[in-house]
């Protein structure tokens, strides 16, 4: 408790209800801390929760591919074992290396560690071999000299909110600069990076140098020494037991790109004289720090994969938005259109990216960063940073069938008694029957609310008190997107106007 100098000298104390000092600031800080705690708790980012989630995801058992003939193929799920340390290459998609990009740490798990004990393999140590789009491959067998990609295991890229599969993160490297380098050895940094495929993610497999000509295009064999060259920098992948790091999985070996070669070039001139090699043949063999082996499953049973992945695509995100709007009721699409119109203070029918995202959040559709980027790339195809919200709504709604269009046309013609192509709100209010409205049937709203809401949606174009067919059609087009059954749609329109 706080005391004033007078109270310390013997004066009376404040009662327990008196607020003294920086009480307002203290209360504000406590509220901020509580809100931050609840936000992290709901998102599962508390340290205790996050640590458990990280272990469950990264150390889960996943299958490895089986190769009857010993050849490594594109699409195989394999491990990469360092011959210098006998450890397995692993990534941690929970540890970002940069705040502005999805770049994650890579290390080499020690033999006998918790990561190494998972069978057939831990998700963080299983990688998928994929083709590089700009190369023409003769078949599905990985061959020396061919470019390829090493993607992280799909189980690491499941979005926790939607359950959909995000784009894989690929083993990547880049030339050393002042900001990017391996922290222990200062060699070329290696990471796994998501996003669009770049040349920095491309690797090639070559045999260990032996002062002899090596034929390009030989099949890469599992469990045999191989050197992985980074195509962009022509530097081999390395794991040096001299450099250890401590991460969330304990002590592991650092992985970087660096060349380790045997000393001396003895007998080079002799080999060139007898014609067994030329000056451009790799003379000095790579040391064990540069040597790796592709590890596959030992039995077909361990290669059985029962996992089912639903890939995260723009279409899947649009479906997610559509379902969220439908959950708001039959007038969900019109409500979102009103939200867009309110935020569009310029009145030009377009929103920038920030306004568009705020409108979705205000309506209760909170997309994650990667989901919002997908949607933005679809509706902002020219990259000018603005989105037409009418085009967005039409795409989310989807096309209306010709049958439903004919039903809407028939209803309008039946209400337009004098056939002048104009209806008034009073005309509609006299014949409108709310008992067939889906919100009335489900009990969401009572009769008065539905009638007021119904009339407020008409005459939206020029506000002249006359309802044109385009306004009538737009109203029921919005409702159509929330109704699956054609018979129910017909019954709703006929019952609403007693047709």
Topology readout:
Elements: H1 5-8, H2 23-43, H3 47-58, E1 61-62, E2 77-82, E3 88-96, E4 103-109, H4 114-117, E5 121-122, E6 127-131, E7 147-152, E8 170-173, E9 188-193, E10 203-206, E11 226-230, E12 235-247, E13 250-257, H5 268-273, E14 291-295, H6 314-326, H7 332-343, E15 350-352, H8 353-362, H9 369-379, E16 386-388, H10 389-397, H11 402-415, E17 423-424, H12 425-431, H13 438-442, H14 447-456, E18 466-467, H15 469-480, H16 486-496
Antiparallel strand pairs: 1-5, 2-6, 2-14, 3-4, 4-9, 4-13, 6-7, 7-10, 8-9, 9-13, 10-11, 11-12, 11-14, 12-13, 15-16, 17-18
Helix pairs in contact: 7-8, 7-10, 11-15, 11-16
Which key terms come to mind for this protein?
4 domains, twelve-stranded antiparallel β-sheet, Trefoil (Acidic Fibroblast Growth Factor, subunit A), two-stranded antiparallel sheet, extended, 499 residues, Recoverin, domain 1
Overview of this structure, please?
The chain is of the alpha+beta class. It folds into four domains: 5-43; 61-303, Trefoil (Trefoil (Acidic Fibroblast Growth Factor, subunit A)); 314-397, Recoverin, domain 1 (Orthogonal Bundle); 402-496, Orthogonal Bundle (Recoverin, domain 1). It has 16 helices and 18 strands. The protein has helices spanning 5-8, 23-43, 47-58, 114-117, 268-273, 314-326, 332-343, 353-362, 369-379, 389-397, 402-415, 425-431, 438-442, 447-456, 469-480, 486-496, and strands at residues 61-62, 77-82, 88-96, 103-109, 121-122, 127-131, 147-152, 170-173, 188-193, 203-206, 226-230, 235-247, 250-257, 291-295, 350-352, 386-388, 423-424, 466-467. The strands form four sheets. Strands 2, 3, 4, 6, 7, 8, 9, 10, 11, 12, 13 and 14 form a twelve-stranded antiparallel β-sheet that branches. Strands 1-5 form a two-stranded antiparallel sheet. Helix 7 packs across helix 8 (353-362), helix 7 runs antiparallel to helix 10 (389-397) and helix 11 (402-415) runs parallel beside helix 16. The longest helix is centred in the first third of the chain and has 21 residues, at 23-43. The protein is extended. The relative contact order is 0.09.
């Amino acid at each position: 408790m706080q005391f004033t100098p007078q109270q310390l000298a013997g004066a009376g104390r404040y009662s327990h209800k008196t607020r003294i000092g920086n009480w307002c600031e203290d209360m504000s800080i406590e509220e901020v801390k509580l809100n931050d705690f609840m936000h992290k708790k709901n998102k599962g980012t508390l340290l205790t929760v996050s640590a458990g989630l990280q272990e469950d995801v990264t150390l889960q058992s996943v299958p490895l591919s089986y190769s009857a003939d010993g050849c490594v193929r594109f699409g195989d799920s394999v491990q990469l074992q360092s011959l210098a340390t006998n450890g397995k290459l692993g990534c941690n998609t929970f540890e970002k290396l940069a705040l502005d990009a999805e770049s994650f740490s890579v290390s080499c798990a020690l033999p006998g560690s918790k990561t190494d004990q998972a069978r057939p393999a831990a998700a963080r140590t299983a990688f998928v071999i994929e083709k590089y789009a700009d190369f023409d491959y003769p078949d599905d067998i990985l061959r020396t000299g061919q470019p390829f990609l090493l993607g992280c295991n799909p189980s690491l890229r499941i979005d926790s909110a939607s359950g959909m599969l995000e784009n894989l993160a690929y083993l990547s490297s880049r030339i050393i600069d002042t900001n990017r380098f391996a922290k222990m050895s200062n060699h070329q940094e290696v990471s796994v990076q998501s996003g669009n495929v770049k040349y920095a993610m491309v690797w090639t497999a070559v045999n260990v140098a032996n002062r002899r000509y090596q034929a390009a295009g030989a099949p890469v064999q599992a469990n045999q020494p191989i050197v992985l060259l980074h195509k962009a920098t022509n530097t081999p992948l390395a794991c040096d037991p001299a450099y250890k790091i401590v991460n969330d999985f304990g002590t592991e070996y650092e992985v970087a790109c660096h060349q380790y070669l045997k000393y001396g070039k003895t007998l080079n001139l002799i080999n060139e004289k007898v014609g067994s090699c030329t000056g451009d043949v790799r003379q000095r063999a790579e040391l064990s720090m540069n040597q790796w082996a592709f590890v596959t499953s030992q039995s077909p049973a361990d290669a059985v994969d029962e996992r089912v992945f639903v890939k995260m695509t723009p279409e899947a995100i649009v479906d997610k938005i559509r379902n969220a709007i439908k959950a708001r009721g039959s007038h969900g699409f019109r409500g979102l259109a009103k939200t867009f119109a309110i935020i569009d203070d310029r009145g030009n029918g377009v929103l920038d990216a920030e306004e568009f995202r705020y409108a979705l959040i205000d309506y209760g559709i909170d997309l994650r960063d990667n989901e919002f980027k997908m949607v933005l790339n679809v509706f902002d195809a020219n990259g000018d940073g603005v989105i037409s919200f009418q085009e967005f709504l039409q795409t989310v709604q989807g096309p209306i069938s010709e049958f439903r269009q004919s039903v809407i046309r028939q209803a309008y013609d039946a209400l337009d008694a004098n056939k002048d192509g104009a209806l008034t709100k009073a005309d509609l209010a006299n014949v409108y029957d709310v008992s067939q409205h889906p919100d009335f049937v489900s009990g969401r709203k009572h009769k008065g609310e539905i009638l007021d809401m119904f009339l407020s949606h008409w005459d939206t174009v020029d506000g002249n008190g006359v309802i044109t067919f385009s306004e009538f059609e737009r109203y029921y087009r919005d409702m159509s997107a929330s109704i699956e059954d054609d018979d129910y749609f017909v019954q709703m329109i006929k019952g609403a106007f007693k047709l």
